């Protein structure tokens, strides 16, 4: 079970890391950087996609991400509570280390903006969790 979970986590993280890594094309100028930020994967860079094609591919990729999340959740739900807690603790420690390493690279002004963004993301997550709880409660009443 642990091997399966580890493989799933690695499979989920690798595409994200690949998208975050700089490449030669993104260093060629602002037009290329915007292109990669907008489309995500460089696999579509040379296809000269129309706006509609980019939108449709974005939908497909978004659905794939949602399905991947659902698959992960299905396997995580099978884990014992102690292993879930250990995993959450490891993920939190990893996130804290990454944020510390990021702050070490930033200027004081950038750190201030970074922390503001982190605060906003935390607020949005709390709002989303509150909405999800409300929606789940509403769905339970409807049944």
UniProtKB/TrEMBL annotation:
Transmembrane stretches, start-end: none
Coiled coil start-end: none
Alphabetized UniProt keyword annotations: Signal
Compositional bias annotation for Basic residues: 32-42
Keyword Signal annotated: yes
Signal peptide: 1-20
Renumbered residue ranges of the record's region Disordered: 23-51, 80-143
Protein name per Swiss-Prot or TrEMBL: LTXXQ domain protein
Species the sequence originates in: Serpens gallinarum
Taxonomic classification: Bacteria, Pseudomonadati, Pseudomonadota, Gammaproteobacteria, Pseudomonadales
